[in-house]
Amino acid sequence: MATSDSLALNKILAVVLIIVGLILLFFAYRSSQSLGDQVTEAVTGSFTDSTMWFLILGAASSVAGVGLFFFGKSARA
Q: What pTM, to 2 d.p., does this model score?
């Protein structure tokens, strides 16, 4: 019983990580389309710090969620 509860909890956590990652990536996209960020990108060649953090954390969260969903603990253990 404990392994199926643990497995269900892992799947729920994986889905939450994927959703949070996608939300952060959406915020990164919206931030990169703002006038201030586009001016900064045109002058410096890179995004603002906040946009980069949204991109990094969104990608990391999404990858971690997908990894946990497909490669997390199995019910066999």
A: 0.82
